[in-house]
Amino acid sequence: MSFDALLAQRRSPLPPLRLLGREVRGVVSWNINDTCNYRCSYCTQRFMPARTYRLEEIEAYLAAFGRLPGAWEVKLSGGEPFQQPGLDEIAAGLVERGHLVSVQTNLSASPRKLDAFLRATAGALHVFAASLHLEYDAPDAFADKLEALVMPWARDHGAQVCVTSVATPARLRQLRDEVAPLFAARQIPFKVQPEKLHGSVRAYTPEERDILLALGGHNRTGEIAPSFRGRLCWAGMHYLVIKSSGEAYRCYPASRLPGGKARLGSFLEGITLLEEPALCPYTHCTCTVPIHRGMIEGVRPRGGDGYEEEIDDVYPLPARP
User: Fold this and answer.
1) Long-range contacts at 174-181 (CB < 8 A, ≥ 24 apart)
2) Would you say 292 and 75 are in contact if contact means Cβ atoms under 8 Å apart?
3) CA-atom Rg of the chain in angstroms
4) I need a labelling partner for 191 at 20 to 30 A (CA). Which of 14, 161, 217, 275 fits?
5) What is the Cα–Cα distance from 14 to 11, expressed in whole angstroms?
6) DSSP 264
7) Environment class of residue 67 by beta-carbon count within 10 Å: exposed (0-12), middle (13-18) or buried (19+)?
8) Nearest alpha carbon to residue 188 among 160, 165, 211, 213
9) Is pTM, for the whole model, over 0.85?
């Protein structure tokens, strides 16, 4: 096989992703604000100034999502998305434009706000991810609130629910011995995220690494700091990150580090997707969506976001030459 033919094979298009019985083009991670009602000691955003969108801006941003080709899953995070005024209106606007919605929240919102959001996303809510912050919430009370206010709706409407927590060294044994068994007993998927210092995964001791890996590693990837440098990645075509500033990037590392094909535009000037996959130039991949959805060359879908039944073998990628 010639070099050109081999390269064309490596850049073969990805099949459509099926979620909630629909075909979607890909996934957008939208950091909808930088505002949070928590100030966790390990949070990389705790010193950022609070920023939310003004209600009069929302229609312009929804119009930008309407210009994306096809249907997408829009993952709302922050900050804390429920601190954004009009979140239920934003979610309803995304659904009206044919998109699916997922959310990452610390679950501190009132029952009224949670109910309004769930109703706005009826039939189009894919994943409700609840972030457990042990500096603010007790695991039992957190699980009780999730089961009382979210789980019944999720079961009735086909949404998936999971719980995440940051794996600080001081909390690792509690996560392993108390928190993970608690959610396993309640049949709620639980995953951990390594703590970051200055944008990089902190140094863990060998014992701490063993515990972290026993908990599944970073978002159940089986690794602590995955690296795919030099492999083709379909982020930028089928995945993008939109920061609270409205700037759009190929992935999370691209939003922090300079490089070609990193920035895709913005809400104001328009978003231009990449036309083909590009080699990953980053030493640490913090985007578990491409990992779990099979968007990285030679990496099988891993199902760590709770998508096991829906993505298994969706993206059978060719082996690297």
Assistant:
1) 174/134, 175/211, 175/215, 176/211, 176/214, 176/215, 178/139, 179/132, 179/134, 179/139, 180/215
2) no
3) 19
4) 14
5) 9
6) E
7) exposed
8) 160
9) yes
DSSP state of 75: E
What is the spatial distance between Cα 305 and Cα 298, in angstroms, rounded to a whole number?
19
Amino acid in the structure at residue 197: L
Give 60-98 pLDDT, tens digit per residue. 889 999 999 999 999 999 889 999 999 999 999 999 999
Give the chain's length.
Answer: 321
Could you read off the pLDDT of 185-222 as tens digits, one per residue? 999 999 999 998 877 899 999 999 999 999 999 999 99
Whether 201 contacts 194, CB under 8 Å: yes
Q: How does DSSP classify residue 71? A: -
**137-170 pLDDT per residue, tens:** 999 999 999 999 999 999 999 999 999 999 999 9
With tokens 């990953």, the residue in question is: 280
Residue 165 in tokens: 């927590």
Token pair belonging to 91: 């979610």
**pLDDT digit string, tens, across residues 104-126:** 999 999 999 999 999 999 999 99
Q: In sequence order, what E strands does the chain have?
A: 17-19, 22-24, 26-31, 72-77, 100-105, 125-131, 160-167, 190-194, 196-197, 200-201, 232-233, 239-242, 247-249, 263-266, 270-271, 278-279
Q: Which amino acid is at 76?
A: L
Rounded to the nearest 5°, which phi and psi values hold at 112?
A: -65, -45
CB 129 within 8 A of CB 157: no
> Per CATH, the architecture of 3-309 is what?
Alpha-Beta Barrel (3.20)
Domain boundaries, the chain: 3-309
Do residues 218 and 193 touch, judged by C-beta distance below 8 A? yes
Share of the chain above pLDDT 90, in %: 70
